[in-house]
Design goal:
With 362 residues, the protein is of the alpha/beta class. The chain has 2 domains: 176 residues, Rossmann fold, CATH 3.40.50; 170 residues, CDP-glycerol glycerophosphotransferase, C-terminal domain (Rossmann fold), CATH 3.40.50. The chain contains 14 helices and 13 strands. The strands form 3 sheets. Strands 10-9-8-11-12-13 form a 6-stranded parallel β-sheet. A 5-stranded parallel β-sheet has the order 1-4-5-6-7, with helices on both faces. Strand 11, helix 10 and strand 12 form a beta-alpha-beta unit. Helix 1 crosses helix 14 and helix 7 packs across helix 9. The longest helix has 14 residues. It is globular and about 60 Å long. This is CDP-glycerol glycerophosphotransferase family protein.
């Protein structure tokens, strides 16, 4: 049984692993648990389950493998012989797990004793890099085994062809010959109401007709960042953020872990570092992005416009910063992370596919 946080649709790391299960271990029947409104995202041949139903509880009880990036909730009662793979939700940038005990504004009533009980049910934790491994071991202490094999959801980024990218851009309505900027800010714990930190209409107006913005709100945002219109396209409801990364020429974000995925894709990343003091005070980060950024940094909207208007977003300095960032955080994201997990956990193999060096990736 596979699932993602919030009982949303097929995708992310569990989705990448489910595809690898079907391809490498066809003897294992798979099922995806999601709210009924998301059932259409589940591929044919994969059983659809609705959380809270008798069928869901039965599947959880009988399943051999459980894969999730959050928690299965109260419906899960572990039995002997089950294997639970926890994928997490990407490389940790902001403080997580037990580290939130010192961040009450971000913890918001987190049941830390319950968190530790949940951690005790994990058998494996998937890790994208050494930074992730050390962080997860500290903030989620338990007896589980680390699988430092890469981020499975990034496999599709490495396997996609130029034809795939062209098809995605056409489907999204990106005008041919334009620069597509994916704007994907993270959730701000300290704000009662979420809002866009950028006037996106002003940004595209200042940059001119060569630029288009794809605006994607965080799932906790509660709605779109802006209405679609002109050269600003709202893509908050798109089911696969990986497709948006592929279709875009650059990512603009603040503190979203999506920056690690796009860096692995070797696409330019521009940080819109607004309100850094407030974010550090409430949530805190594990990486000092001001001293080790994945690309150019803009402190406000005008600086961001300047970064793109001048070409600094994809200049030589941005490329050097991205290369260093990619080397540190994307060493295993070569398109075979999910294969390595399935071969180890399901097939019991120890001689796993070797990692393709950064220089040898597309």
């Amino acid at each position: 049984v596979f699932a993602v946080e919030g009982n949303r649709g097929y995708g992310r790391d569990p989705g990448a692993l489910e595809e690898a299960f079907r391809r490498l271990a066809p003897h294992v029947r798979t099922a995806w648990a999601a709210d009924r409104v998301h059932h259409h995202t589940v591929p044919p041949g994969t059983r659809r389950l609705t959380p809270g139903t008798a069928a869901h509880r039965t599947a959880l009880a009988r399943s051999r493998y459980l894969v999730c990036d959050a928690a299965f909730g109260p419906d899960l009662v572990r039995r002997r012989g089950q294997v639970l793979v926890q994928t997490q939700a990407g490389t940790p940038l902001k403080h997580m797990g037990l580290d939130l005990q010192e961040r009450p504004g971000a913890a918001r009533g987190t049941d830390f004793a319950g968190l530790l009980r949940e951690v005790d049910t994990w058998d494996y934790v998937v890790s994208a890099n050494r930074h992730s491994t050390l962080t997860w071991e500290r903030v989620h202490p338990g007896g589980w085994t680390t699988l430092e094999y890469g981020q499975p959801r990034t496999d599709v980024l490495q396997r996609a062809t130029a034809a795939d990218v062209a098809r995605l851009r056409e489907t999204l309505g990106i005008p041919e010959g334009t620069v597509a900027i994916l704007y994907a800010p993270t959730h701000r714990d300290y704000r009662r109401t979420q809002r866009s930190a950028l006037d996106l209409e002003r940004v595209v107006r200042r940059l001119g007709p060569r630029f288009t913005v794809l605006a994607r709100a965080h799932p906790a945002h509660g709605g779109p960042l802006t209405a679609s219109g002109g050269r600003v396209l709202d893509v908050s409801d798109h089911p696969h953020v990986e497709s948006l990364c592929l279709a875009s020429d650059a990512l603009v974000t603040d503190y979203s872990s999506l920056m690690f995925d796009c860096a692995g894709l070797d696409r330019p990343v521009v940080l819109h570092a607004d309100e850094p003091e407030a974010y550090e005070a409430v949530r805190g980060t594990y990486v000092d992005l001001r001293s080790f950024p994945p690309g150019a940094i803009a402190r406000d909207e005008d600086e961001l416009i300047g970064v793109f208007a001048s070409g600094d977003w994809h200049g030589a300095r941005a490329a050097r910063l991205r290369a260093a960032f990619r080397e540190r955080f994307c060493p295993y994201d070569d398109g075979r992370a999910a294969d390595r997990v399935v071969r180890r956990v399901v097939l019991g193999e120890t001689d796993l596919p070797p990692v393709v060096p950064l220089a040898g990736r597309r």
